[in-house]
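Quarterly update from the structural biology core.
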Amino acid sequence: MKNLKYLVLGVLFGIILTKSEVISWFRIQEMFRFQAFHMYGVIGSAIVVGMLSIQLIKRNHLKSLDGEPIRIADKKFNHGTWIGGTIFGLGWALTGACPGPLFAQLGSGVASAAVLILAALAGTWTYSALRERLPL
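Predicted structure, tokenized:
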């Protein structure tokens, strides 16, 4: 029961992803082919909401659902950021899915999302195994 609130939030998030069509392979392909503004609008509005939310959290010293202070660490730019972002974008363009909506795709009946979830887990495991040897 302790984690019920997270389950409810996850289900609501999945419904929002599905209803807004951001889990649609066709919408993602439209974005990468510059054929529609839909995904750019969703991503752009998410960036604005994220920026405003972080500012509100920092200025008002807000706490988590568990009552703990939220700490947002500063991050330094390094070359791994753009290299990883490029690899991530290529994978997103090839598969038509990023890790966030994979579970919503699976839940909405896209069986091939199971393969992508396994591939995402394999990629995460590979990164963790190689992290110490990767350049900054």
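Residues 38-60 form the longest helix (23 residues).
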